[in-house]
Design brief:
Number of helices of chain B: 11
Strand order of the largest sheet of chain B: 7-6-5-8-9
Shape of chain A: globular
CATH superfamily of the largest domain in chain A: Metal-dependent hydrolases
Number of strands of chain A: 18
Shape of chain B: globular
CATH topology of the largest domain in chain A: TIM Barrel
Radius of gyration of chain A: 21 Å
Largest interface: A-B, 20 and 26 residues
CATH architecture of the largest domain in chain B: 3-Layer(aba) Sandwich
Strand content of chain B: 5-15%
Strand content of chain A: 15-25%
CATH architecture of the largest domain in chain A: Alpha-Beta Barrel
Largest sheet of chain A: 8 strands, mixed
Structural class of chain B: alpha/beta
Oligomer: heterodimer
Radius of gyration of chain B: 20 Å
Number of domains of chain B: 2
Amino acid sequence: MSVQRLFHASAPPAELLIRGAHVLDPRSGLDAPHDVLVRNGAIAELGAPGALPAPDGTDVVEGEGLHLFPAFFDPHVHLRTPGQEHKETLATGTAAAAAGGYCGIVAMPNTAPTLDSAPLLRALTAQAEREAAVPVGFMPAITVGLQGSDLSEMAELRDAGAVGFTDDGKPVVSAGMLRRAFQYQRLTGGVLGLHEEEPSLSGHGVMHEGAVSARLGMAGIPSISESTMVARDAALAAYEQGRAHFQHLSCVESVEALAAWKAAGAHVSGEVSPHHLTLTDEAVRSLDSRFKMNPPLRAETDRRALIDGLRDGTIECVATDHAPHARHEKEVPFEEAPMGVTGLETAFPVLYTDLVLPGVLPLSLIVERMTAGAALLELPTPRIAVDAPANLVLLDLAAEWEVGARGYASKSENSCFEGRTLRGVVRMTVAAGAVVHRAAVEAAA
Amino acid sequence: MTADPRHLLSIDDLDREGIERILDRAASFAEVAGREIKKVPALRGRTVVNLFYEASTRTSSSFELAAKRLSADVVSVRAATSSVTKGESLKDTVQTLTAYDPAAIVIRSPHAGAAQLVARWTDAAVVNAGDGKHEHPTQALLDVYTLRRRLGALDGKRIWIVGDVLHSRVARSDILAFARMGAKVTVSGPPTLIPRGIEALGCEVAPTLDRLAEADVVYVLRMQNERMHEAYVPSLREYATRYQVNAARLQPHQLLMHPGPVNRGVELSADAIDSPQALIAQQVEAGVVVRMAVLYELLAGGPGEAAAAEVAPEAVALA
């Protein structure tokens, strides 16, 4: 019996006929208008547009002019539960995921207390089964209390449903400690997610080290603080034949290190956030704390290297690093503000508007990279295929919306895209066979 | 002025013309400073709040004096004695002070961007009196004022800024202001204390003082003791050996400046401080009139305000 690793509240299985939407699933070779019939929460039939009759009791959705993708999967979010429910809860975080078109998200363990024990994990999975609109997985801590000195009880945690392990928010500073974790991983399985930062280089830095930090007089976080650790830990993974996933990569040197170690045969992967793909440290000139996150927004050369890495597959997936903070926590001088920005509700529209529409990356690649995180964490990939569970996102790619104008499903509003007009509105999200989000369609103009 | 002309948050808020207008105004106030009664009625009945989150002697006292000489009512709030120490946020403090309907809020903060934030939360004019290691625009204005009095226009003048540029808001504002006035700026100091990318502000970097003789002006920054503990330099002794500006290094044609307070025997030798080339006392003196000019420009002046122009200095006789 395999261990359950994704948890959500039960919801009635969808009975849906989505008519005539442009179906795009690169893995299934679909890129044309189809009718898609969902029965009892699973994809029952694909047909030519207008070809499928609606069985009794089926909700018919007119999809003409809309796009239907496999719903997205985010391997990296912060749901702030337990302990910081004023920022986000399982209910609000998964509502944000549903609004953003996600059918699965994986929560980080830097909660209060740290998610580092099986009893706490069991409590959280039980809570997710009551509150989570969208399936949630949990990655408990590699080391107890994220302190870097003792391994958490990884085997027991794994049996209790841990997707993998991470000290995200902090690096595992000691190479010896991380080596032990890779050795122990042979017993437990599960990917080790690594937040890479050499603390003696990042110091008290609050933004990327470069011309902008020099101008603003703020302590910089040099790109080598990340890339030296990527290189070190990829070497450790290779030596121990471990499995490492590098979180939120931000700079050209990290992409190069990842590519080199992949070429050398290390079992390593990487993720990148929509904000690192579309913004640079120039945004920090505004001194607005909504542009403060770790790793920081970096230079244009870094941004381009991340795009190239995503295009050529060096970086396999997009992850939002959704990191909600309360308004009063962010409404302070930049250096004082906590690191982190929200991302679930804007990820696809940002990438579509800033990378797909200008022709930088093809739409099919974005869809592939926004769903690839699941397999990297050894979870099932959302697919549009007959008999697959219905994990679908229906989007209007022609529609525009202003970020924040109607508030957020997230409990927090610290989006670095606030006020931007983006293309791409999520009309409906189906996750694990249930309709979890449905936008009110405005009267035709 | 560019940006939001209601505030002075950064030297970037001022173009060359804006700087010159403030300095010309300051020169007219210098005449007032020479009188027995040093007040003008320009801001009578208006309130200036000084909100200082950092220890400061010369900046806070000169802002206070500047506001008083313009006849404003002055409220000075210091972090150590206010509810700030009880954990009140900057936003709440500003909103509380805004209840007094201040015409201007002068803010000093250990954090970059604090003045920008305050400007978002109040209708008052906001003057940045130093925010973190970011900017100290009124210091730069008084430095330009002091140099203009001695040198005339700064066009083509070579100005070297020596020392801990990394941790200096004065250096950042000065680089911008000196460059805007046409000077050629070079920064010099230990490579550990020169921020990566500083050239983007419009200056050159020289790792040693070997070419210091080419400077018309040597602007020396304060070297703080705590930098020793952070291993930026091995010792003050070694720092002084390589970077102290002293009589042996200072050429007779050069002017010497320092934002104060000076560490005698560290970044400057006593003979240099006390030399006739040193403009350190003139800088302090300029502080009051330049800050009067800034408050006046923001609250009573501005381009094309004919009515305001009547207030000074002709109206001085009324005071």
